[in-house]
Design goal:
Blueprint: H1 14-30, H2 40-49, E1 52-57, H3 62-76, E2 81-85, H4 91-95, E3 99-105, H5 117-123, E4 135-141, H6 151-162, E5 166-167, E6 172-174, H7 179-195, E7 227-236, E8 246-252, E9 265-269, H8 274-284, H9 299-305, H10 314-324, H11 327-335, H12 338-345, H13 350-354, H14 364-370, E10 377-380, E11 391-397, E12 400-403, E13 406-409, H15 411-419, E14 425-431, E15 446-449, H16 456-468, E16 474-480, H17 483-486, H18 490-498, E17 504-509, H19 519-525, H20 527-535, E18 539-544, H21 549-564, H22 569-581, E19 585-589
Parallel strand pairs: 1-2, 1-3, 3-4, 4-5, 4-6, 15-16, 15-18, 16-17, 18-19
Antiparallel strand pairs: 7-8, 7-14, 8-11, 9-10, 9-14, 12-13
Length: about 600
Amino acid sequence: MKIPYIPEDAPFSGDQRAWLSGFLAGLHSRLSIDGDGTDVATSTQQKASSPIHILFGSQTGNAEGVAMDAANAARAAGMQPVVESLDDVDLARFAAMKRVLVVTSTYGEGEMPDNAQLFWEALESDDAPRLESMHFGVLALGDTGYDGFCQSGKLIDTRLEQLGAVRMLARVDCDVDYENDAAAWVGDAMPLASALNVGGADAAPVVVAEAAAPVREKSPWNRKTPYLSTVSVNRTLSGSGSGKEIRHYEFDLGDSGIDYEAGDALGVMPANDPALVDAILARLGANEDALVAGFAKPLGIELSTAFEIVTPSRELIAGIEKRAGNEELSHVLRHGDKEALDAWLWSKDVLDLLQLNPSMAVSAEEFVGWLKPLQHRAYSISSSPLEAKCSVHLTIASVRYHAQGRAHGGVCSTYLADRVADGGRAGIFVSPNKSFRVPSDNDAPMIMVGPGTGIAPFRAFLQERRARGAKGKNWLFFGDQHRASDFIYEDELGAMSRDGVLNRLDLAFSRDQQEKIYVQTRMRENGKALYAWLEEGGHFYVCGDASRMAKDVDQALHDIAATHGGMTAEAASDYVNRLKREKRYLRDVY
């Protein structure tokens, strides 16, 4: 029996329509008849037996978090969610999936996240399988401050369509304030996915490894509602002769109930420099107590806590260019040369752009309309909860430089260094990063490459291994500019070496000799031993600068595999990719 459809133009009032719809739904249920004439019990069994696959590509954990939220929504809708990172899925199994939701972030300038790169390379290849039996949806996370905004999600969405997959719902591209848009997308996706009659279980069996640790409950503390934590320690690590200012912070967790693991990141909610706020107000000719349409708080407070006033947004750059009469800026924008624009913007903040033409009038309303929301800063946690039981530690370089005739500073790094003294409080929350963890096998060797503040998670890893009593060997490559002033945590690392926790420590201080030496230099010098550790089941980790250091380290790893494994360049690439698939080559780069 077919249940009649009520046309939109049927002559019923709203109440009549609601009553009739309810009546027909009840009749539908009592007759146990589905809309296509299928027995409801049979249809429900089909939907339950066919999983909904929720696949994520995540660099810092945001996309994974949304995927977990989607899984909870799928369960509530009576479906069986299977959540995996994209690189855990081979194309043969992927081609057999019927219902697929993809949540992916974009890393760097339009690049795939680390745990999605191998999947994408296979998907874009000429021999990728056809996907006519798949229904899919894509949610993309990104940042409009970058040219490659949501590029990973856009590429995957287009490629799935090219391979014949049927789009369940339109792709949504989320900016840095992604939570509401992501929740709306998940809400839209579930009834569409649930309504699909996909004809039973996937053709290929689903094999998903059990989690090594129990899933943590979702914390009440997040970007919207951070926990106000007391900063109990704020001390300088770098020496007096250093060209850097690296500090160690400890945040008390009090009764927050905050739980974290070695490898996670800590989000810190900053406030802008009051001196910069005052300078911008003066430039605008605005009073700090002025109210701007659409905002409840005075302008001074909004500029202090709500808006990004250091890094210029695209909207602000375009708005300034139209009225500043600055030929240099106009020339760069006209030619659309991203590298030239980046070079021109280097060291300039929002105030610098306002000062391009001191006679240029900009209203407070126009100005705030050009700004992006002030975002938290995420830092790799440098402690293990097994040792720092009631606190969480960070290792941060304070960003300070002089340009355009005045002092400039990093938003969060100087906020913590200068304006949150010992005993002060700052808003924090944990960003889990399940893709960056100490080996679950306590006997597995661990190789860590972390120059500068990239040492942060590896301090946590070593504490974790010590607390576990792990017997696996640990090897750290660390470096910076000068040993005398930049060897942070030297005493701790020395103690770990003496105690047998840190089995090898290779140092690379680039400016202590005429020829510059970097961590990748030390890797190559010790390539034979490094390859042997990998062959023993070792896990290889990298943390730090993505633009240069991580790429150089990756190339060194390929070269070591080729040289000491007797491989061709192609075979070495396959070897490194195998390490990635086995979750033995992991990166936390920025």
